[in-house]
Amino acid sequence: MATNKRPLSPFMIGPYYKPQLTSVMSITHRLTGVALSIGTVLLVYWLAAAASGPEAYEHAQHVLGSMLGQLFLFCWTWALFYHLCNGLRHLYWDSGRGFDMESVYKTGKWVQIASVVLTVVVWIIVT
User: Transmembrane segments in this chain: where (predicted)?
Assistant: First the structure.
């Protein structure tokens, strides 16, 4: 029996498989979904602290106002907009359009650009 040197799965990234925009965006969409879930837990913490009184709220504000808290909130904001924009892209696909490679790559790049622009605009407004 001859041994086959081909990879068993296209997900064996490295010397076997070159990541493409579509695969990276698919993985990123899943990761941003997880990040949004974690961020929602943080939002519930902040709301519970607000309902618990001034000391708990002050502590939550201190945590979220720290450099690490602000970085997390910035990344959470980007994850929200990325997931939203990519979800709209998927709705467009659900209409049966946009499956040719040119459209797939064009809309993928628009998702990336829009998520960054929307994140920056929101942070400019709130700061």
Answer: 31-51, 63-84, 110-126
